Amino acid sequence: MKTWMRATLSIALLLSCTVAALAQAKKTGVLEPADMKTILPSTYFFDGQSAPVQTRNSGAVRFDNGKLFIAALVDNSGYSTDVQAKYQGLLITETKITVGDKELGPGEYGFGFTKDGKFNVLNVAADEVFNVASQQDDAQKHPVPLKIAAADGGFRLYAGKKYVTFKAK
Length: 169
Prior knowledge:
20% of the residues lie in helices and 45% in strands. The radius of gyration is 20 Å and the shape is globular. The strands form two sheets. Strands 1, 2, 3, 4, 5, 8, 9 and 10 form an eight-stranded antiparallel beta sheet that branches. Strands 6, 7, 11, 12, 13 and 14 form a six-stranded antiparallel beta sheet that branches. The chain is α+β, with helices and mostly antiparallel strands. Keywords: Signal.
């Protein structure tokens, strides 16, 4: 009887631990706004100064490997006009990704969509890492300053109706 009781309790304990672990497993895909509170910095250092991060204009993805991709707009009003023209936000990636046809390693970067249809990725010294052509999504009924959406086996980073596609490598 004691052996049966011990076995039953052991199985129950094992099952409850498994259920608890599954419940705490981190969700993959586009994260909810509530998830941003624990991962988004309040300020971001770029080109010699820090700028406030716009929490309301942020988004993130947790890839299948558990690594994060974070994007957010920043208040770039303290930067020169030249920098403002190419830098609107931050990118943080914990894993290698592709943006369009370009590869980007883990790190922290600035980004910006330009008027001539380019998406710039810049290092923290404001030097261009690469640029790719952005796309236009005229089907967007209510474009917002920044959002991330799942699409075509990857994700889209939108700034209004402009977007680029990205995915984990």
